[in-house]
Amino acid sequence: AAAEKGGFPSFMEKEIHDQPMAVEQTLLGRLDEKGNLTLDELKIDESLLRSVDKIIVIACGTASYAGQVARYAIEHWCRIPTEVELAHEFRYRDPIVDERTLVVAISQSGETMDTLMAVRHAQEQGAKVVAICNTNGSTIPREADAVLYTHAGPEIAVASTKAFLAQITAAYLLGLYLAQLRGNKFKDEIGTILAELEAMPAKIQTVIDNEDQVKELARAMKDEGSVLFLGRHVGYPVALEGALKLKEIAYIHAEGFAAGELKHGPIALIDEGQPVFVIVPSPRGRDSLHAKVVSNIQEVRARGAVTIVIAEEGDESVSDYANHVFRVPAAPALLQPLLATVPLQIFACELAGAKGYDVDQPRNLAKSVTVE
Ligand code: AGP
To answer: How many C-beta atoms surround the C-beta of residue 266 within 10 A?
Structure first.
């Protein structure tokens, strides 16, 4: 087993380090010689894909956060209304689904019973289902109408890491493919966006190369009882993922919030010493989004929070309000989750290790949840 871990103390740590490769492999072979995006395995009639008028992403846990990230990109690029729903909630609602609905089921294992049941439920109502899956020949891709495999390689640790980044990458490819097919205004930008995606593995590696700073803080924070995570836009699901990682493997109470929601309640939780992670969007992204998040850092800091900020290299606007800053390379706003998630994974993994827990096999959890 030691060899399988590639010299790392745990599968989780190895899989965090596999992430540049996971994203690279998922992007591999998706361009034809004319520079067009080809998703050969997506065997759904093109005219059908052109007629799609709604997308519903169904998934559980980390995979659902990948779906939440992807929603921002898909709606922006494709102008198709996109919902993301937990599979077990979707299944027992009375969702409005028909032949023009494209359901995207995201699952690392392809065996999650909740997601499988939701796939069947959608198909019964005439929807076509595309699975985004990491496990060849597993049940969900077998039952789906088409599959887009993530090529992250086997993920052994219970806490999902590289699958998450690969799921975002694959869902982005699907979004770009739909934009290309439907010939909308983003058609001409697809090449540029793909080039930006292809630059991500090296940037992810840069984040990993700076892991010592994150690890040091994680060890120092091992006795914390509660940690909060704030993000906005694509940073919001990243905050949810950061909190889930900490709950799962370090058994610390953690919550992720949409930063804009702070003033509607959660800010009451902030008092002296409360650690708060804040994911700061790119200063070059959506107007005013960056400034709003910076003022959120200021607000929690003024109430005594210890702020741990994830921000782009060179973004000095956060320096006055951050107790700790983890830097990520500059990237387009929609691609930032592929970077900003990484320090949160490293933080949870190192902190859980410092507490003496088995990070690969957390209590009460199974790698794939095959019961409803
Ligand atoms: C992630 O760290 C979790 N262990 C869990 O939320 C997981 O993502 C979820 O159960 C979905 O699994 P799947 O991707 O295999 O369907």
So the answer is: 17
Distance from C-alpha of 329 to C-alpha of 278, rounded to nearest angstrom: 16
d(CA 141, ligand 1 centre) in Å: 16
Report DSSP state, residue 172.
Answer: H
From CA 154, how far away is CA 230, in angstroms rounded? Answer: 30
Q: Look up residue 136 and give its two tokens.
A: 């060849």
| Mean pLDDT for back-to-back runs of 10 residues, the chain (372 residues) | 84 98 93 78 84 97 98 94 97 90 97 96 95 96 95 95 98 94 78 92 98 98 97 98 98 97 93 97 83 96 97 94 97 96 98 97 90 86
Predicted complex ipTM exceeds 0.95: yes
In order of 111, 220, 291, the CA distances from 304 in angstroms are: 44, 18, 20
Sign of the four-CA dihedral 344, 277, 351, 66: negative
Task: Report pTM.
Answer: 0.97
Ligand 1 site, CB within 6 A: 60-63, 107-109, 112, 115, 158-160, 248, 368-369
The residue type found at 325 is V
